[in-house]
Write a structure and sequence with these properties.
single chain, 269 residues, alpha+beta, endopeptidase fold (from Nostoc punctiforme), 6-stranded antiparallel sheet, two-stranded parallel ribbon, 5 helices, 8 strands, 13% strand, rod-shaped
Length: 269
């Protein structure tokens, strides 16, 4: 026996309370329970685990809110579509209005032009009627002296030239020697005496001094239309007659003034 066998221990005995014993028992029980659960999990490792999640139930208030939100979204979409349709309609209307305005302006301009042309034609007809009356009265008497039927000097040369072209062909833009238009014939006739006339009828109608139709002399330039806007010219050759390149149907011809009374006359020589 060891020599310490009869020595009493100085360590105080542990005072284990009931609560400590219960806690340890619970821990032990928990460990055992975890071990048992682990064993069960190991045993069931081959089986799939299914979890079921429960969502909160849709209440009446939530359903109303969802419905109201859907209605608001649908109304907003309808309003947007309506605005888009109105914008498109306004754009189309503006485009059509612009087109209508341009068309109306074009029609108004055409009517104005037609009215102005009709007014000018009426004035020209009135002038021709007056001239026809005057020329007819002159033709009824002895007009040899009053109308200067006998050409002299350079005027005789001009008259002889235009008469020599009677029967030639009329072609617009023609300047001879065998084809003419009205102003081309007049220009060529006066070139024979050294007078350089403008090329076109409008300018030839203002190339000299304006003279009255009842005081014509051979060699005077006759014009049809307004002074500065004439559309035809010819040469007075005396005896109440003129020579001109009339049109493609007649060519260069000699006609009585009463056949187509001119609007006015200018004297260059």
């Amino acid at each position: 026996m060891p020599h310490t066998a009869h020595i009493r221990s100085h360590r105080k005995p542990r005072n284990r309370s009931a609560s400590t014993i219960a806690m340890r028992a619970g821990v032990a029980s928990g460990v055992l329970s975890l071990a048992a659960a682990g064993a069960a999990s190991a045993a069931d490792a081959g089986e799939p685990v299914t979890q079921t999640l429960e969502l909160p139930a849709l209440t009446a208030d939530m359903a109303n809110q969802v419905a109201q939100s859907a209605d608001a979204t649908q109304q907003a979409a309808a309003n947007y579509q309506l605005r888009a349709e109105r914008d498109a309609a306004a754009a189309n209307a503006a485009k059509q209005a612009k087109s209508d305005l341009a068309h109306a302006k074009k029609q108004a301009a055409a009517k104005k032009k037609a009215a102005e042309k009709a007014r000018q034609e009426a004035a020209e007809r009135a002038n021709r009627s007056s001239a026809r009356t005057t020329l007819s009265a002159s033709a009824g008497g002895s007009s040899a002296s009053s109308s200067g039927s006998t050409a002299t000097g350079t005027a005789a040369t001009v008259v002889a030239f235009v008469k020599a072209q009677i029967g030639d062909t009329y072609i617009s833009g023609g300047t001879g020697p065998n084809v003419w238009d009205c102003s081309g014939l007049v220009q060529a006739a006066f070139k024979q005496v050294g007078v350089d006339l403008p090329r076109v009828s409008q300018d030839q109608s203002t190339a000299g001094t304006q003279v009255s139709l009842d005081n014509l002399q051979p060699g005077d330039i006759l014009y049809w239309g307004g002074a500065g806007s004439a559309y035809h010219v010819g040469v007075y050759v005396g005896g109440g007659k003129f020579v001109g390149a009339q049109n493609p149907s007649t060519g260069v011809v000699e006609r009585d003034l009463s056949y187509d009374p001119p609007s006015g006359a200018v004297r260059v020589l």
